[in-house]
Amino acid sequence: MLKKSRVRLVDVAAAAQVSKQTVSRVVNGRQDVAEETRQHVLTVIEQLGYRPSVSARTLCHGRSHTLAVVGSNTGFLATELYQGAAQQAQALGYSLMLRTLANPSAETVEKLLLGLTDMEIDGVLWAIPDADGRSDWINAERLRRIGVPVLFMSTEPRPGISTVSFDNAEGAFVATQALISAGRTRIGHVSGPQGWWVARERIRGWRTALEAAGLPALDAWVEAGDWSPLSGEAAMQRLLNRVPDLDAVFVGNDRMALGALLAAHRRGIPVPQDLAMVGFDNILESACFHPPLTTVIQDKHRHGEHAVLALVREVAALYGEEPPHIELPPLRHQLVQREST
Protein backbone atom coordinates (compact mmCIF):
# COMPACT_ATOMS: atom_id res chain seq x y z
CA MET A 1 0.00 0.00 0.00
CA LEU A 2 1.25 3.43 -0.88
CA LYS A 3 1.93 5.74 2.01
CA LYS A 4 -0.32 8.79 2.11
CA SER A 5 1.57 11.85 0.88
CA ARG A 6 2.49 14.42 3.49
CA VAL A 7 0.26 17.49 3.69
CA ARG A 8 2.23 20.59 2.79
CA LEU A 9 1.87 24.15 3.96
CA VAL A 10 0.82 25.12 0.45
CA ASP A 11 -2.03 22.55 0.62
CA VAL A 12 -3.33 24.24 3.75
CA ALA A 13 -3.14 27.63 2.05
CA ALA A 14 -5.08 26.33 -0.96
CA ALA A 15 -7.76 24.67 1.16
CA ALA A 16 -8.15 27.74 3.38
CA GLN A 17 -8.03 30.08 0.38
CA VAL A 18 -5.37 32.24 1.99
CA SER A 19 -1.74 32.95 1.14
CA LYS A 20 1.13 30.72 2.16
CA GLN A 21 2.45 33.60 4.27
CA THR A 22 -0.82 33.72 6.23
CA VAL A 23 -0.59 30.02 7.05
CA SER A 24 3.07 30.46 8.02
CA ARG A 25 2.17 33.33 10.34
CA VAL A 26 -0.53 31.26 12.03
CA VAL A 27 1.78 28.24 12.45
CA ASN A 28 4.51 30.44 13.92
CA GLY A 29 2.20 32.28 16.32
CA ARG A 30 2.45 35.66 14.64
CA GLN A 31 0.03 38.29 15.93
CA ASP A 32 -0.47 40.12 12.63
CA VAL A 33 -3.33 37.82 11.52
CA ALA A 34 -7.02 38.62 12.03
CA GLU A 35 -8.53 36.36 14.69
CA GLU A 36 -11.26 35.09 12.36
CA THR A 37 -8.64 34.17 9.76
CA ARG A 38 -6.45 32.52 12.39
CA GLN A 39 -9.29 30.29 13.58
CA HIS A 40 -10.24 29.39 10.03
CA VAL A 41 -6.65 28.38 9.19
CA LEU A 42 -6.33 26.38 12.41
CA THR A 43 -9.54 24.51 11.54
CA VAL A 44 -8.21 23.63 8.08
CA ILE A 45 -4.88 22.53 9.62
CA GLU A 46 -6.74 20.15 11.92
CA GLN A 47 -8.95 18.84 9.14
CA LEU A 48 -6.01 18.10 6.85
CA GLY A 49 -3.74 16.81 9.59
CA TYR A 50 -0.99 19.24 8.70
CA ARG A 51 2.18 19.08 10.79
CA PRO A 52 5.02 21.55 10.16
CA SER A 53 8.34 19.93 9.34
CA VAL A 54 11.09 19.97 11.91
CA SER A 55 13.13 22.32 9.75
CA ALA A 56 10.18 24.66 9.37
CA ARG A 57 9.75 24.90 13.14
CA THR A 58 13.29 26.20 13.45
CA LEU A 59 12.55 29.17 11.23
CA CYS A 60 11.86 32.46 12.93
CA HIS A 61 8.42 33.63 11.83
CA GLY A 62 8.50 31.29 8.86
CA ARG A 63 11.74 32.75 7.47
CA SER A 64 14.57 30.74 5.92
CA HIS A 65 16.70 33.64 4.65
CA THR A 66 17.13 31.62 1.46
CA LEU A 67 16.43 32.95 -2.04
CA ALA A 68 16.00 30.67 -5.04
CA VAL A 69 17.56 31.62 -8.36
CA VAL A 70 16.05 29.98 -11.45
CA GLY A 71 18.34 29.82 -14.49
CA SER A 72 18.37 27.95 -17.79
CA ASN A 73 21.25 25.62 -16.84
CA THR A 74 23.94 25.03 -14.23
CA GLY A 75 26.39 27.13 -16.26
CA PHE A 76 24.59 30.13 -14.78
CA LEU A 77 26.60 29.56 -11.58
CA ALA A 78 29.73 30.84 -13.35
CA THR A 79 28.16 34.05 -14.65
CA GLU A 80 28.89 37.53 -13.34
CA LEU A 81 25.16 37.94 -12.81
CA TYR A 82 25.03 35.04 -10.35
CA GLN A 83 28.23 36.13 -8.62
CA GLY A 84 26.83 39.61 -8.06
CA ALA A 85 23.59 38.17 -6.74
CA ALA A 86 25.43 35.80 -4.39
CA GLN A 87 27.67 38.57 -3.05
CA GLN A 88 24.73 40.87 -2.34
CA ALA A 89 22.70 38.05 -0.79
CA GLN A 90 25.53 37.19 1.58
CA ALA A 91 25.89 40.85 2.57
CA LEU A 92 22.18 40.92 3.47
CA GLY A 93 22.28 37.65 5.42
CA TYR A 94 20.72 35.43 2.76
CA SER A 95 21.87 32.32 0.94
CA LEU A 96 21.08 31.41 -2.67
CA MET A 97 19.72 28.14 -4.03
CA LEU A 98 20.04 27.51 -7.78
CA ARG A 99 17.38 25.64 -9.72
CA THR A 100 17.36 25.12 -13.48
CA LEU A 101 14.59 24.87 -16.03
CA ALA A 102 15.48 24.43 -19.68
CA ASN A 103 12.04 24.84 -21.26
CA PRO A 104 9.64 26.83 -19.09
CA SER A 105 5.92 26.22 -19.54
CA ALA A 106 2.96 27.03 -17.32
CA GLU A 107 2.93 23.46 -15.97
CA THR A 108 6.68 23.04 -15.38
CA VAL A 109 7.10 26.51 -13.91
CA GLU A 110 4.25 26.18 -11.44
CA LYS A 111 5.50 22.77 -10.34
CA LEU A 112 9.01 24.16 -9.81
CA LEU A 113 7.92 27.28 -7.95
CA LEU A 114 5.45 25.49 -5.69
CA GLY A 115 8.19 22.99 -4.89
CA LEU A 116 10.45 25.85 -3.90
CA THR A 117 7.82 27.35 -1.60
CA ASP A 118 7.48 23.94 0.07
CA MET A 119 11.18 24.31 0.90
CA GLU A 120 10.33 27.57 2.73
CA ILE A 121 12.34 29.86 0.47
CA ASP A 122 11.66 33.56 1.00
CA GLY A 123 11.69 34.70 -2.63
CA VAL A 124 12.63 33.81 -6.20
CA LEU A 125 14.95 35.49 -8.70
CA TRP A 126 13.88 34.51 -12.22
CA ALA A 127 17.00 34.71 -14.41
CA ILE A 128 15.79 32.88 -17.54
CA PRO A 129 15.86 35.33 -20.48
CA ASP A 130 12.59 36.59 -21.92
CA ALA A 131 12.90 34.86 -25.28
CA ASP A 132 10.92 32.73 -27.71
CA GLY A 133 7.89 32.23 -25.49
CA ARG A 134 9.83 31.36 -22.34
CA SER A 135 7.94 34.06 -20.42
CA ASP A 136 4.45 33.27 -21.73
CA TRP A 137 3.56 31.59 -18.43
CA ILE A 138 3.87 34.84 -16.47
CA ASN A 139 0.66 36.36 -15.10
CA ALA A 140 -0.21 38.10 -11.86
CA GLU A 141 -2.72 35.46 -10.73
CA ARG A 142 -0.24 32.60 -11.07
CA LEU A 143 2.37 34.59 -9.15
CA ARG A 144 -0.17 35.33 -6.41
CA ARG A 145 -0.81 31.60 -5.95
CA ILE A 146 2.91 30.97 -5.50
CA GLY A 147 2.77 33.13 -2.40
CA VAL A 148 6.34 34.44 -2.24
CA PRO A 149 7.86 37.40 -4.09
CA VAL A 150 9.19 36.58 -7.57
CA LEU A 151 11.48 39.10 -9.23
CA PHE A 152 12.30 38.88 -12.93
CA MET A 153 15.64 39.79 -14.50
CA SER A 154 15.95 40.63 -18.20
CA THR A 155 12.19 40.32 -18.67
CA GLU A 156 9.89 42.73 -20.45
CA PRO A 157 7.94 44.74 -17.86
CA ARG A 158 4.24 43.93 -17.65
CA PRO A 159 1.43 44.61 -15.17
CA GLY A 160 1.57 42.75 -11.88
CA ILE A 161 5.22 41.65 -11.96
CA SER A 162 8.45 43.00 -10.50
CA THR A 163 11.48 43.38 -12.76
CA VAL A 164 15.06 44.60 -12.50
CA SER A 165 16.64 44.91 -15.93
CA PHE A 166 19.12 47.03 -17.80
CA ASP A 167 17.60 49.52 -20.21
CA ASN A 168 18.87 47.79 -23.34
CA ALA A 169 17.38 50.49 -25.57
CA GLU A 170 19.51 53.05 -23.72
CA GLY A 171 22.60 50.87 -24.19
CA ALA A 172 21.94 50.58 -27.91
CA PHE A 173 21.44 54.34 -28.08
CA VAL A 174 24.89 54.82 -26.50
CA ALA A 175 26.45 52.44 -29.05
CA THR A 176 24.76 54.04 -32.04
CA GLN A 177 25.50 57.56 -30.83
CA ALA A 178 29.21 56.67 -30.76
CA LEU A 179 29.00 55.91 -34.48
CA ILE A 180 27.06 59.11 -35.19
CA SER A 181 29.65 61.10 -33.23
CA ALA A 182 32.34 59.56 -35.43
CA GLY A 183 30.66 61.15 -38.45
CA ARG A 184 28.94 58.03 -39.81
CA THR A 185 25.57 58.51 -41.50
CA ARG A 186 24.57 55.13 -42.98
CA ILE A 187 24.49 52.89 -39.93
CA GLY A 188 23.14 49.35 -40.07
CA HIS A 189 22.40 46.93 -37.26
CA VAL A 190 23.14 43.23 -36.77
CA SER A 191 20.64 42.28 -34.10
CA GLY A 192 20.12 39.29 -31.88
CA PRO A 193 17.17 36.97 -32.58
CA GLN A 194 14.03 39.06 -32.57
CA GLY A 195 12.21 36.56 -30.37
CA TRP A 196 14.41 37.91 -27.55
CA TRP A 197 13.15 40.96 -25.67
CA VAL A 198 16.68 42.37 -25.21
CA ALA A 199 17.29 42.12 -28.97
CA ARG A 200 14.09 44.03 -29.74
CA GLU A 201 15.05 46.68 -27.20
CA ARG A 202 18.48 47.11 -28.80
CA ILE A 203 16.81 47.56 -32.21
CA ARG A 204 14.60 50.21 -30.63
CA GLY A 205 17.61 52.05 -29.19
CA TRP A 206 19.44 51.95 -32.55
CA ARG A 207 16.39 53.34 -34.30
CA THR A 208 15.80 56.07 -31.68
CA ALA A 209 19.40 57.33 -31.92
CA LEU A 210 19.30 57.52 -35.71
CA GLU A 211 15.91 59.25 -35.81
CA ALA A 212 17.05 61.76 -33.18
CA ALA A 213 19.99 62.63 -35.46
CA GLY A 214 17.80 62.88 -38.55
CA LEU A 215 19.43 59.81 -40.11
CA PRO A 216 17.70 56.90 -41.88
CA ALA A 217 16.70 53.92 -39.74
CA LEU A 218 15.29 51.53 -42.30
CA ASP A 219 14.00 48.03 -41.57
CA ALA A 220 16.10 46.85 -44.52
CA TRP A 221 19.22 47.93 -42.63
CA VAL A 222 18.67 45.35 -39.87
CA GLU A 223 19.75 41.71 -40.08
CA ALA A 224 19.33 39.19 -37.25
CA GLY A 225 21.79 36.63 -35.96
CA ASP A 226 21.53 34.16 -33.09
CA TRP A 227 24.24 35.72 -30.84
CA SER A 228 26.98 33.44 -32.25
CA PRO A 229 30.03 34.54 -34.31
CA LEU A 230 28.99 32.46 -37.33
CA SER A 231 25.55 34.02 -37.35
CA GLY A 232 27.15 37.46 -37.08
CA GLU A 233 29.24 36.78 -40.17
CA ALA A 234 26.23 35.52 -42.14
CA ALA A 235 24.04 38.46 -41.06
CA MET A 236 26.78 40.96 -41.98
CA GLN A 237 27.17 39.37 -45.42
CA ARG A 238 23.41 39.63 -46.02
CA LEU A 239 23.37 43.23 -44.84
CA LEU A 240 26.27 44.24 -47.10
CA ASN A 241 24.69 42.46 -50.06
CA ARG A 242 21.58 44.56 -49.61
CA VAL A 243 23.21 47.85 -48.49
CA PRO A 244 26.79 47.83 -49.81
CA ASP A 245 27.42 51.50 -49.00
CA LEU A 246 26.94 51.26 -45.24
CA ASP A 247 29.64 53.17 -43.41
CA ALA A 248 28.98 51.76 -39.92
CA VAL A 249 27.23 48.96 -38.07
CA PHE A 250 26.08 48.45 -34.51
CA VAL A 251 26.24 44.75 -33.63
CA GLY A 252 23.99 43.41 -30.87
CA ASN A 253 26.74 41.51 -29.03
CA ASP A 254 30.51 41.14 -29.23
CA ARG A 255 30.43 37.50 -30.34
CA MET A 256 28.42 38.40 -33.44
CA ALA A 257 30.73 41.37 -33.96
CA LEU A 258 33.63 38.93 -34.30
CA GLY A 259 31.83 37.32 -37.23
CA ALA A 260 30.87 40.71 -38.66
CA LEU A 261 34.54 41.76 -38.65
CA LEU A 262 35.39 38.56 -40.53
CA ALA A 263 32.71 39.32 -43.13
CA ALA A 264 34.16 42.79 -43.69
CA HIS A 265 37.70 41.37 -43.94
CA ARG A 266 36.63 38.81 -46.55
CA ARG A 267 35.15 41.60 -48.66
CA GLY A 268 38.28 43.71 -48.35
CA ILE A 269 36.45 46.42 -46.38
CA PRO A 270 38.87 48.09 -43.96
CA VAL A 271 37.60 48.67 -40.40
CA PRO A 272 37.24 51.42 -39.28
CA GLN A 273 38.31 53.39 -42.37
CA ASP A 274 35.35 52.36 -44.55
CA LEU A 275 33.16 50.61 -41.98
CA ALA A 276 33.09 51.55 -38.28
CA MET A 277 31.75 48.99 -35.83
CA VAL A 278 30.48 48.95 -32.24
CA GLY A 279 29.60 45.80 -30.30
CA PHE A 280 27.84 45.14 -27.02
CA ASP A 281 28.79 43.30 -23.77
CA ASN A 282 32.56 43.99 -23.57
CA ILE A 283 33.57 40.34 -23.41
CA LEU A 284 37.22 39.82 -22.46
CA GLU A 285 38.20 38.81 -25.99
CA SER A 286 36.80 41.97 -27.61
CA ALA A 287 39.99 43.89 -26.75
CA CYS A 288 41.92 41.32 -28.85
CA PHE A 289 39.75 41.41 -31.99
CA HIS A 290 41.32 42.82 -35.15
CA PRO A 291 40.89 45.70 -34.82
CA PRO A 292 40.10 45.88 -31.08
CA LEU A 293 36.36 46.38 -30.77
CA THR A 294 34.62 49.48 -29.46
CA THR A 295 31.81 48.12 -27.32
CA VAL A 296 29.35 48.82 -24.52
CA ILE A 297 29.74 47.56 -20.96
CA GLN A 298 26.69 46.10 -19.25
CA ASP A 299 27.76 45.42 -15.65
CA LYS A 300 26.08 42.09 -14.99
CA HIS A 301 27.65 41.80 -11.53
CA ARG A 302 25.89 45.03 -10.58
CA HIS A 303 22.68 43.73 -12.16
CA GLY A 304 22.77 40.73 -9.81
CA GLU A 305 23.31 43.01 -6.82
CA HIS A 306 20.36 45.20 -7.77
CA ALA A 307 18.07 42.21 -8.28
CA VAL A 308 18.81 40.68 -4.87
CA LEU A 309 18.40 44.01 -3.11
CA ALA A 310 15.03 44.61 -4.78
CA LEU A 311 13.84 41.10 -3.93
CA VAL A 312 14.92 41.37 -0.27
CA ARG A 313 13.04 44.66 -0.04
CA GLU A 314 9.90 42.89 -1.27
CA VAL A 315 10.41 40.11 1.28
CA ALA A 316 10.83 42.68 4.05
CA ALA A 317 7.63 44.45 2.98
CA LEU A 318 5.75 41.15 2.99
CA TYR A 319 6.75 40.50 6.61
CA GLY A 320 6.34 44.08 7.77
CA GLU A 321 10.06 44.49 8.37
CA GLU A 322 12.39 47.41 7.84
CA PRO A 323 13.90 47.20 4.32
CA PRO A 324 17.69 47.25 3.82
CA HIS A 325 19.01 50.81 3.84
CA ILE A 326 21.41 50.36 0.93
CA GLU A 327 21.78 52.47 -2.18
CA LEU A 328 23.55 51.00 -5.20
CA PRO A 329 24.80 52.95 -8.21
CA PRO A 330 22.19 52.90 -10.99
CA LEU A 331 22.34 50.40 -13.83
CA ARG A 332 23.95 52.40 -16.62
CA HIS A 333 25.85 51.50 -19.78
CA GLN A 334 29.38 52.67 -20.49
CA LEU A 335 31.10 52.97 -23.86
CA VAL A 336 34.57 51.42 -24.23
CA GLN A 337 36.30 53.24 -27.08
CA ARG A 338 38.73 51.13 -29.12
CA GLU A 339 40.08 51.01 -32.67
CA SER A 340 37.01 49.74 -34.56
CA THR A 341 35.52 53.25 -34.59
Structural notes for this entry:
This is LacI family transcriptional regulator. It holds the Pfam family LacI. Keywords: DNA-binding, Transcription, Transcription regulation. One of its GO terms (molecular function) is DNA-binding transcription factor activity. With 341 residues, this protein is of the alpha/beta class. It folds into three domains: 49 residues, lambda repressor-like DNA-binding domains (434 Repressor (Amino-terminal Domain)), CATH 1.10.260; 131 residues, Rossmann fold (3-Layer(aba) Sandwich), CATH 3.40.50; 130 residues, 3-Layer(aba) Sandwich (Rossmann fold). 42% of the residues lie in helices and 13% in strands. The chain contains twelve helices and eleven strands. It is elongated. 42% of the residues are buried. About 2% of the residues have low confidence.
Provide a short characterization of the protein structure.
With 341 residues, this protein is an alpha/beta fold. The chain has helices at residues 9-16, 20-27, 35-48, 54-57, 80-91, 106-118, 140-146, 168-181, 197-212, 229-242, 254-266, 300-318; strands at residues 66-71, 95-100, 123-126, 150-153, 162-164, 187-191, 222-224, 248-251, 276-278, 295-297, 334-336. The protein is built from twelve helices and eleven strands.
Helicity, in percent? Answer: 40-55%
Quick one: how many beta strands? 11
- Judged by helices, strands and strand pairing, the structural class is alpha/beta
The span between the termini is 73 Å
As a whole number of angstroms, the C-alpha radius of gyration is: 24 Å
SSE ordering: HHHHEHEHEHEEHEHEHEHEEHE
CATH 2nd-level architecture of the largest domain: 3-Layer(aba) Sandwich
CATH top-level class of the largest domain: Alpha Beta
Major sheet characteristics: 5 strands, parallel
What is the domain tally? 3
The unreliable regions are 56-61
Shape category: elongated
Lateral arrangement of strands in the main beta sheet: 2-1-3-4-5
